[in-house]
């Protein structure tokens, strides 16, 4: 039986999964927001459509789809995929799995405390509140959805080495502040494991084993690259945009036991150290 993955939003994480599955014989379809990127991805042999609220999918786009992944963020009106295509997805006779890529930001601020998938969500940011509402809408849709709450994503082309090379790396110090993170290849591993063991309605935290202060990650990358790290800057006096400052508003540690226990996942990069060491030949200064 043919296996067809449709990705609403062929971005960084979705592309990593799509390319892995394409190598295993899956048919890949998906969306982007612009015709230039659509054309570039179509060159990989995929059917790619331009999609946003003003450009819904044509009727033939979803025919035969067996698995769907959405990484498109909700807007103030709601989730555009659900709003435009919930009925089309529900009408697919062979649809076995939908993955929704969300964020651990829905847990809000826990003052450094631990959270897991059973912790009630308490978003403190407007964008996290929209995510929480979108999660609820998907779970109430009757579709075979699985919620993946992603920590901070890094990997090839998006990591501390790149920031050091470009001169944008900073060591902002807010005492007690930690962030959880996840390598993009480990995201793909979790998603593939869920596809193999679907449990509609499930929620999974997707993060590595060690929440860590962001300044430590930059210092470790600089040491691996043999370069001096940028100086530490106190959070209180650092020049940060209002958006950047919001990332430091919440402080929590996220548990990942469920992906290991229920999906049998073994992380290739259980901490940022393994992840950065693997990236150094590609992305080092």
UniProtKB/TrEMBL annotation:
Any GO molecular function: 4-phosphoerythronate dehydrogenase activity
InterPro entries: NAD(P)-bd_dom_sf
This enzyme's EC code(s): 1.1.1.290
Record keywords: NAD, Oxidoreductase
Highest taxon listed in the record's lineage: Bacteria
Keyword 4Fe-4S on entry: no
SUPFAM superfamilies: NAD(P)-binding Rossmann-fold domains
Enzyme class: oxidoreductase
Protein name stated in the entry: SDR family oxidoreductase
């Amino acid at each position: 039986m043919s296996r067809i993955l449709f990705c609403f939003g062929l971005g960084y994480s979705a592309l990593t999964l799509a390319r892995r599955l394409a190598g295993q014989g899956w048919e890949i379809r998906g969306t982007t927001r612009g015709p230039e990127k659509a054309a570039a991805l179509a060159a990989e042999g995929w059917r790619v459509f331009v999609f946003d609220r003003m450009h819904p999918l044509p009727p033939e786009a979803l025919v035969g789809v067996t698995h769907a992944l959405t990484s498109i963020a909700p807007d103030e009106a709601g989730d555009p995929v659900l709003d435009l295509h919930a009925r089309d997805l529900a009408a697919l006779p062979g649809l076995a799995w939908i993955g929704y890529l969300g964020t651990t930001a829905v847990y809000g601020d826990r003052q450094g405390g631990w959270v897991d998938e059973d912790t009630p969500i308490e978003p403190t940011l407007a964008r996290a509140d929209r995510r929480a509402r979108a999660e609820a809408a998907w779970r109430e849709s009757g579709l075979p959805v699985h919620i993946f709450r992603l920590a901070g994503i890094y990997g090839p082309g998006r990591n501390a080495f790149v920031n050091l090379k470009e001169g944008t790396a900073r060591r902002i110090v807010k005492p007690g502040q930690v962030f959880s993170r996840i390598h993009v290849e480990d995201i793909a591993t979790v998603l593939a494991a869920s596809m193999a063991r679907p449990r509609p309605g499930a929620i999974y935290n997707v993060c590595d084993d060690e929440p860590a202060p962001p300044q430590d990650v930059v210092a470790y990358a600089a040491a691996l690259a043999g370069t001096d790290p940028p100086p530490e800057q106190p959070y209180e006096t650092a020049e940060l945009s209002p958006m950047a400052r919001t990332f430091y508003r919440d402080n929590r540690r996220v548990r990942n036991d469920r992906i290991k226990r229920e999906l049998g996942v073994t992380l290739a990069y259980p901490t940022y150290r393994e992840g950065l060491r693997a990236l150094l030949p590609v992305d080092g200064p």
